[in-house]
Amino acid sequence: MFLLKKIIGPFFLPLTVCLFIFLVGLFFLWFRKRRFLGTFWVTISFILLVLLSYSPVPHALLRPLESRYPPLTHLDQIPKVRWIVVLGGGHCSDPNIGMVSQLSGSTLFRLVEGIRLHRALPDTRLILSGGAIFDTVAEAQSMENLALALGVEREKIVLDLHSRDTEEQSERIQKIVRKEPFILVTSAAHMPRAMALFQKIGLQAIPAPTDYGVKQNPRPHLSPSMFFPNPEEWAKAQGAVYEYLGLAWAKLRGRI
């Protein structure tokens, strides 16, 4: 089931859909009697490409996900916790690059936020979660290496080295924290799905979202870059659609 999800999911992501529509249009352009259809589909793919390359559409997709849970800033207003759970978001254990570069941007944001909270709550322990999915080294191991380098004590770290996705993470973390409340750190867009999966099995997670894609400048201003397409906006759209697909998949299977 896990492998099937990983194979089918990418077919529904914006870039794949856009390229498929473009190829359909290109196919019809080879036939004189079908050139109108070809022009139509190529135009549709171009419009999608443009819309997803500027911030309004990707932000509209991301905002409902990222605004579901506020950032955890007032630690004095939460119950006493012993655990801070950090969910992995991708890595590559290339020995030729530094340990910081081995973690994806999402994982790095999550780990730094987890360490920040741990230092603010020194009696807590960090649970770093992520298995070796398409890598020889578990993601949690790569996270631990950086956490140790940043000064976290080894005895304050617990590793989940086997989870392949958020659903498995919820099940394995349940065996560690039992019924105790804990802080859950993951990307803001991923938090709604993570919270739904964790709450479904009775876990008392306190959300601590990080890694925001939608950022509001307190002093809005125009800059030349705003008028040009931006691949980062495409990445935001990809991430948002990925989360919506994940929510739909979990809903269909009765996991949330």
Walk me through this protein's architecture.
The protein has about 260 residues and is an alpha/beta fold. The chain has a domain of about 140 residues: HUPs (Rossmann fold), CATH 3.40.50.620. Helices cover about 50% and strands about 10% of the residues. The protein contains ten helices and five strands. It has a five-stranded parallel beta sheet with strand order 3-2-1-4-5, with helices on both faces. Helix 9 links the parallel strand 4 and strand 5. It is elongated and about 70 Å long. The protein starts with a helix and ends with a helix.
SSE layout and pairings?
Blueprint: H1 2-8, H2 14-29, H3 35-51, H4 56-66, E1 83-87, H5 99-102, H6 105-120, E2 125-129, H7 139-149, E3 157-160, H8 166-177, E4 182-187, H9 191-200, E5 205-210, H10 231-252
Parallel strand pairs: 1-2, 1-4, 2-3, 4-5
Helix pairs in contact: 2-3, 4-10, 8-9
Residue-averaged pLDDT, rounded? 93
CATH architecture of the domain at 72-210: 3-Layer(aba) Sandwich
Shape field: elongated
Please count the helical segments. 10
Can you tell me the CATH superfamily of the domain at 72-210?
HUPs
Round the Cα radius of gyration to an integer and report it.
21 Å
| Through-space gap between termini | 17 Å
Strand coverage percent: 5-15%
CATH class of the domain at 72-210: Alpha Beta
* Portion of residues within helices: 40-55%
Count of distinct strands: 5
Task: Note the main attributes of this structure.
256 residues; alpha/beta; Rossmann fold; five-stranded parallel sheet; 10 helices; 5 strands; 49% helix; 10% strand
